[in-house]
Every structure is written in structure tokens, then in C-alpha cells.
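Slide 14.
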Amino acid sequence: MSVEQPQGRYASFEAFYPYYIHEHSNRTCRRIHVIGTGLVIAAFVAFVATRNAWWLLAMPLVGYGFAWVGHFFFEKNR
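Slide 15: predicted structure.
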């Protein structure tokens, strides 16, 4: 599937979606995203339960960290 790199903002979700699907075509990458998302939710629940602000710091680290690993090592894109 040929998908152009973004040149700026997309005019609509319909215009963006083919690019998004192309960037998430690897099954392992998608699974790593799900794990990262689950850990972000767990960190938020831990924050609410403990009121420890370190959990707020953990949220973007695990969320972006897992996504980055998925894209860099499995999807081979940025």
C-alpha cells in the first residue's frame, strides 16, 4: 500500500486514517501499543489510589516508551 508522508495537518480523519493504518501494520507493534496503553491506565489507577505523583510521571514514560519500541524495532518507522 502506498501512503504519502504527512506534509502538515490532515483535512479530515478519512484523509489521515490510511496513513495511520500504514504506520501500525505490524501485529507485534500493535500488541506493544496495547500493553503500553494498559500500563498507562494502571499507572493512573495507582495514582488515584495512592496520590503519589510519581505515577503521573510513569504514565507518559510507559505510554511513549512502549510505542517507541514498537515503532522502532518492529514497525521500522519513526
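Speaker note: Residues 13 and 64 are 22 Å apart (CA to CA).
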